[in-house]
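New to this. Help decode both lines:
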Amino acid sequence: MQGHVYSRLGSFGGSAGTPSPPPPPSPARGGGRRTPGKAGSARGSQEAAVAAAAALGVAGWGGAARRTAWALLAALLRRQAVFLFAPLLYVAAMLLYMGSLPLDVVPRIITRSAPGSVYRSPQLYARLRAEMDADRSADALATVWRHTYKGGAWRPCISNMTNSLPESNGYIYVEANGGLNQQRTSICNAVAIAGFLNATLIIPNFHFHSIWKDPSKFSDIYDEEHFVKRLQNDVRIVDKVPDYIMERFGHNITNVFNFKIKAWSPIKYYKDVVLPKLVEERFIRISPFANRLSFDAPPVVQRLRCLVNFEALKFANPVASLSETLISRMRAKSAESNGKYIAVHLRFEEDMVAFSCCVYDGGDEEKKEMDVAREIGWKGKFTKRGRVIRPGVIRMNGKCPLTPLEVGLMLRGMGFNNKTAIFLASGKIYKSEKTMAPLLEMFPLLQTKETLASDEELAPFKDFSSRMAAIDYSICTYSEVFVTTQGGNFPHFLMGHRRYLYGGHSKTIKPDKRRLAILFDNPRIGWKSLKRHLLNMRAHSDTKGVELKRPNESIYTFPCPDCMCRVNRTTHSKPIHAR
């Protein structure tokens, strides 16, 4: 019986009647160790080697070759750890190969900048100019505005007061800092606070700034007599403090208690902190004063802000007279469009370009000039340790000032043809001879206050930046279309003023500069595709121009009663009478 079992098992391997050896131990169990008495393992390895050699096509080799192949494969099978050295052998071979290359050959690494991060507008203009000039589409100026105010019948944010004023709680003196429109904010807020605290306001003093370098006083820019008269039923305004008050302070304004108030402080702060000191001292000073009152204020405060900005602040007669003359000349030069013209607020002055930290196409020369300008205007601000400036990211985020060329491309793409009259409101353009040339090619009817007025007419204003800005402001106010390119106080005030004049509609193009950066950086975009994108952008600006005010936004930009109804009414909403 036992022999029978052995004979049956023998059919699976070895000679008949000879029991088959047990299978070789697993490497995981045996650890790769060889044990005596296991000749079958060697024989199995030999058979595997022969089979492998046959599979590789080496069955026809001679005896020596067969023995060599068998020996190599058998060794590998017995020493499986050898395979761990294969990656090391590969790396060694690659190093030997790279070492054989000549040292003057450097592999070329191709890097691609993110879309919208590089200024390539000049290349785009050169490629699309012929197709742009051949475009004979209808001019957009006649049909640019399709939407009207959606809030029903337009009602401005002002109602007249006829009540007599109670006894004053004291005098308030403020220093309005910044440029023309930052000073305008200070004036409006000062009147609103004086009215709310039932105080007498001294005509605001304009702080001289090292950047604007304008020594103008209030009466040099605004009609002081009209200002006082228009507000006489709401706030007492005087041009100086009475002598008996100044005697207490030695006739020295610096001896007067000065409040250092945080920006955007709520009206409640003035009621709880400023008013008690005002009543005690009878005269207080607030300096600096720009942006020191929150937009979120009760209706009585908002009404005073509106009254000042849109009714009480009229430009002084010399500024207003020249502005009216230049508006008439601008309309005359727009005869082909029935006196309608576009006004563009362009911020491409040297200090603006330097502050933005954006890179254009001026190379090393531009970099040196911008570094010097930044150090002069903002010493140490941009060279602090740890500060990282990424011009590409700034451009992608839509923070770079548009160049004159980009403004021209944008307006032509929005459907305004080369016969459109444009008024350009700006300071001294950076490298104007070079940068303005493409814009003048696209819009040859472009005008500035310098081209509309003679040297003699501009002479009284030329050395005063705020007066020159007031002329720009006036001409832009009465344009058919206003285009803002960089933000700031100027366009925000102007949009509100135009809403006030045009029944709630600002008629303003405010481009999406993030999209513009991507469009102008696209090397494959064609004229038709670019124009389609820009027409959509213009339509979106038209729609945005009729939106109602959102919470906590400026009453100077959204001058409507509905805006005032949305503010927080939990604060005190009536003027505080004398105590």
About this structure: The mean pLDDT is 83. Residues 347 and 401 are 6 Å apart (CA to CA).
